[in-house]
Design goal:
Oligomer: single chain
Number of strands: 6
Distance between the termini: 34 Å
CATH architecture of the largest domain: Orthogonal Bundle
Number of domains: 2
Shape: elongated
Order of helices and strands: HHEEEEEEHHHHHHHHHH
């Protein structure tokens, strides 16, 4: 089976999600914490181009009317048609009457907040944390692995035993335990830095062991010995000659750490140990979809889970499926 179409679809999916996250303030119709009290768990707004008389017209929406407050059921008010406003109010598109018929492309959550808006802003939070933590783990693990592999001896043994100790621990439970010992209520910026630090420490050993093995092997090759004999210092030998040999391995590990950290953040935020509920992240959004009724009656609340699946799947088929990504490049 040709994997190229699947890889291409993964690239496009990642591109769309990344672009949506970057342009969230312009694409999102509302503020992520804006509430519509009369539209709790309202279904997605239907954009229409055919009016009640069967004629074509510019895209418009109809307001929702709540028919059951207990069951939170809504029906469209077919007697009204609210036009859409393009490039107004600093956003791409929004309803011309936000008070009566806000544009809710993915419906509303249990607090009446726009799910589509929070999904975009949640992508900014979750993906930024995962990328920052993965890069931090790559840098830390690469430095430790390179130092251990080049130095050798007792220092190498000590660093590798420490890495093995972290590796045998269940990553998710370690992250949960480390976060649980911290104060529960923290500012969002502090939570971001705290989680990034925890993920970096937990993820670094996955990089360090592989880099250490590659550096230790490459150090015995002729080109490394030649560089040292010509007067190259230890830092230059490692940075210019040995570490480049680990590029393929580091790239493969990086693609696995990013989706792992996305899932870990979602888990921590879902159980209340991540970002506070007023911060839009994919984990905090999934708190609204934690009941059977929410899943069956308000399936749009599962959109963050779909986004997480798309990111994890796309990263795997896009980067890990490429030929040679698991091997490392040797200098010529």
């Amino acid at each position: 089976m040709n994997a190229r179409p699947v890889r291409s679809a993964g690239v496009w999916a990642l591109g769309v999600i990344a672009l949506g996250a970057l342009l969230a303030p312009w694409i999102a119709p509302h503020d992520p914490n804006a509430r519509f009290p009369d539209l709790l768990n309202a279904p997605p707004t239907r954009i229409r181009v055919v009016d009640a008389g069967g004629g074509w017209r510019a895209p418009f929406v109809r307001p929702w009317t709540r028919v059951s407050q207990l069951e939170q059921r809504y029906e469209e008010n077919r007697a009204e048609a609210i036009a859409l406003t393009w490039f107004g109010g600093g956003t791409l598109v929004r309803s011309s009457d936000e008070a009566r018929a806000p544009l809710l492309l993915l419906g509303a959550d249990g607090f009446g907040r726009d799910v589509f808006t929070r999904l975009l802003y949640g992508a900014r939070t979750s993906l930024a944390l995962a990328v920052v933590a993965a890069l931090g783990a790559t840098v830390l693990g690469g430095l430790v692995g390179a130092f251990a592999g080049y130095a050798g001896g007792s220092l190498d043994e000590a660093l590798m035993r420490a890495s093995e100790f972290v590796l045998v621990l269940p990553t998710m439970y370690v992250a949960l335990a480390l976060r649980a010992v911290m104060p529960l209520v923290l500012p969002a910026s502090t939570v971001f830095l705290l989680l990034a630090a925890i993920f970096t420490v937990v993820g670094a050993p996955f990089i360090s062991r592989g880099v250490r093995g590659i550096v230790r092997s490459e150090r015995q090759r002729d080109y490394a010995a030649a560089a040292a004999s010509l007067g190259a210092g230890h830092v230059r030998v490692v940075s210019r000659h040995l570490l480049p040999a680990a590029r393929g391995f580091v790239a493969a590990q990086l693609t696995m750490l990013v989706p792992a950290f996305v899932v870990t953040e979602a888990t921590l935020s879902f159980v209340g140990l991540g970002f506070p509920s007023d911060v839009a992240s994919w984990g905090t959004m999934l708190q609204d979809a934690s009941t059977i009724r929410a899943i069956s009656d308000f399936p749009w609340l599962l959109s963050p889970a779909v986004a997480i699946f798309v990111v994890v799947f796309s990263l795997n088929v896009t980067l890990q499926g490429r030929h040679g990504v698991m091997s490392y490049d040797r200098p010529m």
